[in-house]
Design brief:
The chain is an alpha/beta fold and about 325 residues long. The protein folds into two domains: about 140 residues, NAD(P)-binding Rossmann-like Domain (Rossmann fold); about 160 residues, Dihydrodipicolinate Reductase, domain 2. It has ten helices and 13 strands. The strands form two sheets. The protein has a seven-stranded mixed beta sheet with strand order 12-11-7-10-9-8-13, covered by helices on one side. A hairpin with a 4-residue loop joins β9 and β10. α4 packs parallel to α5 and α5 packs antiparallel against α10. The radius of gyration is 19 Å and the shape is globular. Bound molecules: nicotinamide-adenine-dinucleotide and 1,2,3,4,5,6-hexahydroxy-cyclohexane. Nicotinamide-adenine-dinucleotide (NAD) binds next to α1. The site of 1,2,3,4,5,6-hexahydroxy-cyclohexane (INS) has 5 residues, from α7. Keywords: NAD, Oxidoreductase. It catalyses: myo-inositol + NAD(+) = scyllo-inosose + NADH + H(+). Its EC number is 1.1.1.18.
Amino acid sequence: MLRVGVIGTGMIGQDHIRRLTSVLSGARVVAVTDVDTTLAAGVGAAVGAAVHPTGEDVIAACDAVLVCSWGPSHEQYVLAAIDAGKPVFCEKPLATTASACRRIVDAEVACGRRLVQVGFMRRFDDAYRKLRNEAGGGAIGAPLLMHCAHRNRDVPAYYRTEMAIVDTAVHEFDMVRWMFGEDIVAIRVLVPRSNRNGAGLQDPLLIILELANGIIVDVETSVNIRYGYDIRGEIVGENGTLTLGGPVAVDWRDRFQAAYDTELQEWIDALGVSGHPTGPSAWDGYAATAVCEAGVQSLRTGSRVEVALAERPSLFLS
Ligand SMILES: NC(=O)c1ccc[n+]([C@@H]2O[C@H](COP(=O)([O-])OP(=O)(O)OC[C@H]3O[C@@H](n4cnc5c(N)ncnc54)[C@H](O)[C@@H]3O)[C@@H](O)[C@H]2O)c1
Ligand SMILES: O[C@H]1[C@H](O)[C@@H](O)[C@H](O)[C@@H](O)[C@H]1O
């Protein structure tokens, strides 16, 4: 039985604790922490997990770690887990800057084995997996374009315009790299007329991604669209199109519930088999954050911005 520690017991931390405790097999939650100590105490007591004062204490008390705290704290905890030689599943983003992600990549390379997985759950969603199999199987000839929409009914009061890139569209940045096996080489962010539900946000955004092999992807983010949580995708190929299935949902928990289950079950199973995660890597986390940085620059300047990645270490080549 894998003894899991959870750092950050907010929305997704609680959702993952629920699935580890009542849905999945092979793991149990033994340690939790949160800077909100009252929250951590309640969540820990409900599942019989020890409540620790710091993330580092949680890492010491478990076999593998889930980092579900706010993005700016991810680097510290992921580095501490690598330092302790423990597998760590980090919710997106891996870290909030490309240079912080590079420090994580470098630490993993120095350690010599894969320990980090990033929470890009779309790779585990049945509809996305079907789309990828069909596109990769040549059903529509060579893919040329992809249209994506990422619509949230609403967002919390602390949500800022850049978060449509770094918090929301970051899922599409990872998804298209995985879908087509190509890096994103340039990004341009366009700012349409604003939705008045957005209380001052620039919403929606229209993001144009250029892939290394010439495929172009457009991503609409609308984060105050009221009618529901709607994730769309359509690949245009030489001989036809493929459309992503999936219902309009209430929110991300509802739409991706099964994908989160599969993501963490496969993580538990991979650790049981080899001790190493097989899902999205620290390199994938770095590549997505590099696109986010370029996207924020494009939002500010209105220009097309190229994405420059470092050379990929051999640890991440397979
Ligand atoms: N994969 C997905 O679809 C998905 C969905 C939601 C959230 N997320 C990611 O998960 C993370 C958490 O998001 P959330 O919606 O649960 O937010 P949240 O605010 O509900 O929960 C985060 C919790 O982390 C705690 N925290 C913050 N800094 C901490 C620190 N340094 N040490 C310990 N605890 C700390 C907060 O007190 C809070 O309880 C974010 O990185 C977010 O982007 C991913
Ligand atoms: O943190 C959430 C989460 O990542 C969701 O999957 C996404 O749809 C939201 O826009 C984002 O705010």
